[in-house]
Specification:
Elements lengths: L19 E12 L2 E9 L3 E3 L3 E2 L6 E7 L8 E9 L4 E6 L3 E3 L7 E9 L4 E4 L4 E3 L4 E10 L4 E8 L14 E10 L2 E10 L17 E8 L5 H10 L9 E7 L5 E8 L2 H20 L9
Parallel strand pairs: 1-6, 5-7, 6-9, 7-10, 8-11, 9-12, 10-13, 12-14
Antiparallel strand pairs: 1-2, 3-5, 4-5, 13-16, 14-15, 16-18, 17-18
Helix pairs in contact: 1-2
Length: about 290
């Protein structure tokens, strides 16, 4: 009589994922009427590329690269940008921010921006693409001293639209907070879980798919600038491809522009028009041409 032994149960090791943190630091200083970087540090996969000076104004331009495919499971990027008094810096990145599936730990991006007296930061990153199955948390904290100016815009897509991945991510959360001389002047919290929230309802995103915000933080904003910006926004009764509105933030410390659209390039084009208007009205400068 033969006896068959039951196969020994195999124990599959559980992989413990350790969060991977990458840090980037950049400090700008005014030397001989020119902005230079006095500190530049980055951990892989983040990288600061060679800086450029704007052709017409000699303002410094800083480009941030991500040499990886994007934010992966458990990744944390921390960006720290400091502008000392009277500096002027334009910051962007080389491509869209891609958030890959995060089955174990969410991906995170923390940004700390400090602007000294009279400093100007123009920060225009490329849009963000949350892939299907991704979870993301982003936080931006801005500290401004007297007379500092921030121009910042971000655009969020619903996913890889050409692959039919609209709103298939698990969650997307972001927080934006601004302090002027340690006093809170702007705060925004956004959270979308497509499987839970009724984002297509009235008063939410309705039938729009892409969202964006343009922040103009300056104590020199005026009603005239607000009207100029509103004149750039599409009229709802003539063009429903973009829904947008602009208004002052608390204590007249700036202007917020909200954008909804159905494709990314239209929102990018409108952001560029608003940027050009802000440069002309607030900074007395010609439009900026980024090298990409």
């Amino acid at each position: 009589m033969s006896i068959k032994l039951a196969p020994t149960a195999m124990t599959i090791p559980t992989t413990i994922l350790t969060p991977r943190k990458s840090v980037l630091r950049a400090t700008a200083r005014q030397v001989n009427n020119r902005t230079i970087l006095t500190e530049r540090y980055h951990d892989a996969p983040l990288k600061i590329t060679k800086t450029f000076y704007e052709e017409h104004s000699s303002r410094l331009q800083l480009y941030i690269m991500d040499v990886s495919p994007g934010l992966l499971d458990g990744d944390c990027y921390e960006l720290n940008i400091k502008l000392e008094d009277n500096t002027h810096l334009t910051v962007t990145n080389q491509s869209f921010t891609k958030i890959h599936p995060t089955p174990h730990q969410y991906a995170e991006m923390i940004q700390n921006l400090h602007l000294g007296k009279g400093a100007v930061l123009e920060y225009f990153p490329e849009p963000t693409i949350p892939y299907a199955g991704s979870r993301f948390e982003g936080r931006i904290k801005v500290d401004l001293d007297e007379g500092a100016v921030l121009l910042y815009a971000d655009i969020v897509t619903p996913g890889r639209t050409h692959r039919g991945e609209q709103f298939q991510y698990e969650s997307f959360a972001s927080r934006f907070e601004v302090y002027r001389q340690q006093q809170l002047i702007a705060w925004e919290q956004f959270m979308l879980m497509p499987a839970v929230h009724h984002y297509q309802g009235t008063g939410a995103m309705e039938d729009y798919t892409h969202s964006g915000t343009f922040w103009i933080i300056a104590d020199t904003t005026s009603q005239a600038l607000l009207e100029r910006i509103r004149s750039l926004l599409p009229e709802p009764h003539t063009d429903d491809s973009i829904l947008a509105g602009a208004s002052f933030i608390a204590a007249d410390q700036g202007i917020a522009v909200r954008l909804l659209g159905r494709n990314v390039w239209q929102l990018q084009e409108l952001v560029k028009h608003i940027w050009d208007q802000c440069r002309s009205s607030l900074l007395d400068m010609v439009p900026c041409q980024l090298r990409k």
